[in-house]
Design brief:
Largest sheet: 7 strands, mixed
Order of helices and strands: EEEEEHEHEHEHEHEHEEHH
Low-confidence stretches: none
CATH architecture of the largest domain: 3-Layer(aba) Sandwich
Shape: globular
Bound molecules: spermidine
Structural class: alpha/beta
Mean pLDDT: 96
Helix content: 25-40%
Number of helices: 8
Distance between the termini: 55 Å
Length: 277
């Protein structure tokens, strides 16, 4: 018999996204947030933090590949990478596919996300045991402040801009990110949906433009995120994601290609208007 249990993410008073649940696999309140793992009919196993969809087994590749590979194919020789957040390990898994990457640090505040992801999302978390990976259970904001000039590429794989993640969308944090990058470094942050988070995208873009000579927004399509259209913002000290795009270095992707890299920066007019300086 079909289950009548549904998971519903309420984005705002007017928008919800719903998935039929077969089974609740895990639920807990960690020191920082509520965490649930459920088995859905449509997208397989789903990770939920504070009531928001973080990732699912079946569509995670879009987000993780597009967060990781655009930045790593913009830098000509990325050796040292930092991921702030992203305790499920998806961005790390993609980052270490790049042969030049010698060190990938994960700075995740909530150790329970890492543990539960290893248990329920072995594919997404598969990179966490790689010898190049250093998992630090720590406040990512403090970690960034404490490591000036160390990284070629930094990723901000935050949760939604509520609760523990609010500071990861602040200008002061982007300044600290700039300090933690080498002189030709770049960063990429997940910056939510252009349909529902317009103020946030405008603010992030204005802040990053003030701090970095190159600031570009790009898009990908993640079915389980509200509206599906998802944005990423890159701030770069030297390399431009289109002019300096590197030949493809990884083969085993399901979404990212050289052409998708280019196409991701072709913005619909209403998104262009959001980020116009
Ligand atoms: N509303 C969805 C925002 C999720 C961003 N981070 C997801 C973490 C997956 N590694």
């Amino acid at each position: 018999m079909r289950s009548e249990l549904w998971f519903t993410e309420r984005q705002n008073d007017n928008l919800e996204i719903g998935l039929r649940i077969n089974k609740i696999l895990h639920s807990e309140q960690t020191e920082y947030q509520s965490m649930d793992v459920v088995e859905t009919e449509q997208y397989g196993t789903l990770l939920v933090l504070d009531g928001c969809i973080m990732t699912t087994d079946k569509d995670e590749f879009v987000y993780h590949e597009m967060l990781a590979h655009v930045g790593l194919h913009t830098h000509p020789n990325p050796k040292s990478v930092l991921i702030v957040g992203g305790g499920d390990g998806g961005v790390i898994r993609e980052a270490i596919k790049h042969p030049s990457v010698e060190r990938a640090v994960l700075a995740e505040i909530d150790g329970r996300v890492v543990e539960v992801s290893k248990q329920y999302f072995p594919n997404i978390a598969s990179g966490l045991s790689d010898p190049r990976v250093d998992v630090q259970i720590t406040d990512g904001i403090q970690y960034v402040k404490d490591h000036p000039g160390e990284f070629d590429v930094i990723y901000i794989d935050s949760t939604d801009p509520i609760g523990p993640a609010v500071g990861l969308f602040a200008k002061e944090f982007y300044q600290a990110v700039s300090n933690a990058l080498r002189e030709d470094g770049l960063f990429v942050a997940q910056t939510e949906s252009p349909f529902v988070n317009q103020d946030l995208i405008q603010k992030v873009h204005a802040d990053v433009r003030d701090l970095f000579p190159i600031c570009e927004l790009y898009l990908a399509y993640v079915p389980t995120y509200p509206t599906g259209m998802w944005s990423f913002t890159m701030g770069s000290k030297k390399y431009h994601p289109l002019r300096d795009q590197q030949p493809i270095r990884v083969q085993d992707t399901k979404y990212y290609t050289e052409q998708v890299h280019q196409a991701a920066f072709a913005l619909p007019k209403f998104v262009q208007e959001l980020v116009r300086g």
